[in-house]
Amino acid sequence: MIGAREQAEATGGAERRPPAGPAGRAGGLHSRTRTTLVALAFLLPNLSGFLVFTLWPVFYSLVIAFTNYNLLQAQPHRWIGPANFIKLFHTQDFWLYFINTFYLMLGLPVSIAGSLCLAILLSQRIRGVIVYRTLFYLPSFTAGVALFILWKSLYNPDFGPVNVVIRAAADLLGRNVHGPDWLVSTQNLLGLKVEEVGASAKDFGLGARDALMFMGIWVAIGGSNMLLYIAGLANIPQDLYEAARIDGAGRWALFRHVTWPQLAPTTFFIVVMSLIGGLQGGFDQARVMTLGGPAGTTTTLSYYIYTKAFEDFQIGYASAVAWILFALIFAITLVNWRYGSRYVND
Amino acid sequence: MKLTYLISFAVLLGFSVVAWVWQPRSDDRRIDLVWTSDDNPARREQVALFNRLNPRYRLRLDPQNATMEKVIVQSLAGVGPDVFDCYDGFQLMAYVQSGIAWDCDAELRARGIAPTDYWPCVYPCTMLDGKMYGTPNNASAPAIWYNKKLLREQGIPYPKAPWTWGRFIETARRLTRRDARGRLIRCGMLMNWLVDWNITIFQFGARFYAPEGTRCVLDSPAAGQAMQFLQDLTFKYRVAPTPSEEAGLSTIGGWGTGSMTQFAGAQAAMTFGGRYWLCILRDEAYRKLELGAVQMPTDGLNVVPGVGRSTLINANSRHKEGALEFLLFLHGKEFCELINHQADAICAVKKYAYTDAYLHDPGFPAEDYNDVWRAALETAIPQEVSPYVNGVTAFRILSKQVDLVKNQAKTGAEAMRDAAKKINREIVEGLRMNPDLRKRYMRAIAAGAPPAWDRPEDAP
Question: What is the 3-state secondary structure (H, E, C) of B384-440?
């Protein structure tokens, strides 16, 4: 039971308003205006920062995407219409980096499934589960750069533990293999060509793109997705499981008909966020581990935007790429909401 | 609640006022100068020398903001350094075009500084269209470092110039060591492909651009042979590490790591390098390293690419007078002798490299190869840039092709042909976006310079 004062606060002080009538209405308007002004005053510090450092640059970037803005030219930039957009669609590098971006996202289904499996395991009533949860979440609060440097060593073709294990396994089978060249190889599991859109057998193998994808899976499995799934699992009412068990459901049936549908909102959220993150991703790894190489095979759209803007200083062109990336993310998210949310609501 | 916020605000404001009133006052009336340069350990001593010789100023090094993009962006925003370093012709062009480099030609000449004081290979990072935008502070040309002990162990006499690439390969072969599985234990020759591949370009008689910079000419047979030679060193003669072997040798980044530490750790018997390597190799950790140096092998042409570092003045600096003082200091005897002593390459002012103090530094009596670096500078030619293409973009195109050569995905000739094609396409695209540049370009074409396109319909 709540008291009168708390009730008044909860209803925004409506009980204290003056009575209706001409004078009362005027007083109400005055009060509302005052309240709005006070609210705006409190919001102002944050709002002004948002307007100056976020909203204005975003809209300005849209404007300069239609100009030849280049930091290397002292003269003012000129309006060139959609030339930057036309140029990027005719630039092969753009399409190659577009493909690279999606290639690194191929690991998303695996990482999401892995997060779910791990969350189920860590939701069991076992001794020391908190310790396990913390251990699996550790990579998420380790600095990205430290992780990438660690993985760079793991992928060392000669002395890295990954190839050492591969070689040991091959030795057991009586085979002499060196192991993949990982971060220095342009090969990939889809056989994508390096300099043109297409595939060829000679480009098939394990290389830098795969190395980054595998690392991404490892990082994502124990990350925030796992935590979201653990929270989602904790919120499933136990009586649903009890009812299903009474009906004779086994472990798989429980998962298929109770756990999975109940986790649908969580999965939907994770898929949407992972797709957005995947499309924006690849920059940190490329910057620390490969500098976008070898031969541009680990350059993603976000790294391409950076190199065009802050290495080539073609700000106009880089803005155009950024807006194309935004349009892509927006479109994919819309499709997700349109078709994905129906499974959540069922 | 409102009252709480107001009281909090008033208290914070009060604290700020108290802090402002009580802040420590300094009697130091020196003028602050900020210099963005790399994090070479030698730099701190250079700063200390300037501050000692010029008590009116307090020079501070800012290595975190030394990259070109940071200098340009910060200077345009009005928070850039007073003086900043420039490493090549493209950077100078970028700084001048973006309006950041101050044209101090008249001021420098009035103070008795002339371009002829310096090694010709440093002109591109100092001068543009005949004007001096700063003063060079060191110069470097590559030669070959070798590990005397490893050569002695193999019974190989120390190489002496002039020598040929054939003898170089034979020496490197004898110095290369592999284990029973064929894994590289020690390479005869260590290269940093990203930096060193242009050494052979000049040695094979190839050029990057037509003289006016209107066309990339790396599609020449000589350029293809030069790149093929590097691939052959790795895969045919097997004296240099493959990309995979190179990754095996690699260390974590930072100034002075990579090739330098690998060579110092005896993972390589010979390597391309410069005198500035001594900034690292003199470290106590490498005191057992017995160093030797010899000029590049040559099969006819004796040219190497020379580089330098110059210091420019920010056009928006509020302390131009102090910045000029600093440039004068860089031209002076004390600084040049310090550069030579520190082995931060060689001083840019030629006359100070022709002294006995340079050849025989009493502080480092074992270094009997200082004449090698000076001789390399005498044969060094400046690196080529084109005013019509962004140097970083061109470099990235070339790096990509070099990666493909390293991975044996292309031959040297194929890679150089494709690099030239892409750079020329980039030139045309740039001209389409920039009408002023196009006018200048067309004037050069009209005067007989070769265009970047092969078919008239591809012209911008």
Answer: CCCCCCCHHHHHHHHHHHHHHHHCCCCCHHHHHHHHHHHHHHHHHHHHHHCHHHHHH
Amino acid at residue number B205: G
Name residues 243-262 of chain B within 8 A of A (Cβ).
243-248, 250, 252
Closest chain A residue to the Cα of B100, Cα to Cα: A74
User: Can you read off the two tokens belonging to residue B104?
Assistant: 């101090």
d(CA A41, CA B241): 65
The answer to whether A281 touches A299, Cβ cutoff 8 Å, is no
pLDDT tens, N- to C-terminus, chain B (460 residues): 778 888 998 999 999 899 888 877 767 788 999 999 988 778 889 999 999 999 999 999 999 998 888 899 899 888 999 999 998 888 898 899 888 999 999 999 999 999 999 999 999 999 998 999 999 999 999 999 999 999 999 999 999 989 999 999 999 999 999 888 778 889 999 988 877 888 888 888 899 999 889 999 999 999 999 999 999 999 999 999 988 888 777 654 444 457 888 888 888 999 999 999 998 899 888 888 999 999 999 887 788 899 999 999 999 999 999 999 999 999 999 999 999 999 999 999 999 999 999 999 999 999 999 999 999 999 998 888 888 998 888 999 999 999 999 989 999 999 999 999 999 999 998 898 888 889 989 999 999 999 999 888 888 8
Nearest CA in chain A to B5: A42
CA distance linking residue A146 with residue A139, whole number of Å:
10
What distance in Å separates residue A235's CA from the closest CA in chain B?
Answer: 35
Assess contact for B234 and B408: CB atoms under 8 A: no
**Domain boundaries in chain B?**
31-141+307-379, 143-190+244-295, 192-239+388-460
User: A182 lies in a domain?
Assistant: no
Q: Do A313 and B94 touch (CB under 8 A)?
A: yes
Question: Pairing state of beta strands B380-382 and B304-313?
Answer: parallel
- Chain-chain contact of A186 with B429 (C-beta, under 8 angstroms): no
- A60 and A89: one domain? no
Shortest distance, CA B22 to any CA of chain A (angstroms): 27
What CATH topology corresponds to B192-239+388-460?
D-Maltodextrin-Binding Protein; domain 2 (3.40.190)
Which residues of chain A make contact with B436, given a CB cutoff of 8 A? 75
In a domain, A71, yes or no: no
- Report the candidate in A304, A303, A316 with the shortest Cα–Cα distance to residue A73: A316
Common-topology check for domains B31-141+307-379 and B192-239+388-460: yes
- Specify whether A142 is located in the same domain as A268: yes
CATH match of B31-141+307-379 with 3.30.565.10: no
Per the domain annotation, does A140 fall within a domain? yes
To which CATH superfamily is domain B143-190+244-295 assigned?
Periplasmic binding protein-like II (3.40.190.10)
Distance to chain B for A139, nearest Cα, Å: 21
Same domain, A274 and A339: yes
Q: Does A157 reside within a domain?
A: no
Which ipTM was obtained for this model?
A: 0.76
- Taking an 8 Å cut-off on Cβ atoms, the answer to whether A194 and B409 are in contact is yes
B72 to A68: CB separation less than 8 angstroms, yes or no: no
Question: Which chain A residues are Cβ-neighbours of B245 within 8 angstroms?
Answer: 157-158
| A87 and A22 fall within a common domain | no
Kindly write down the DSSP assignment for every residue of A222-253, as one continuous string. TSHHHHHHHHHHHTS-HHHHHHHHHTT--HHH
CA distance A247 to chain B (A): 56
What's the domain range around A40? 4-64
- B403 contacts on A by Cβ (under 8 Å): 186, 293-295
Looking at the structure, tell me whether residues A215 and A266 fall in a common domain: yes
Sequence-ordered strand ranges (E) for chain A: none
Q: Flag if B433 and A70 touch (Cβ within 8 Å).
A: yes
Do A121 and A232 belong to one domain?
yes
**Averaged pLDDT, A210-218:** 94
What's the 3-state SS for A107-124? HHHHHHHHHHHHHHHCCC
**A237 and A283 assigned to the same domain:** yes
Instruction: List the CATH number of the domain containing A223.
Output: 1.10.3720.10
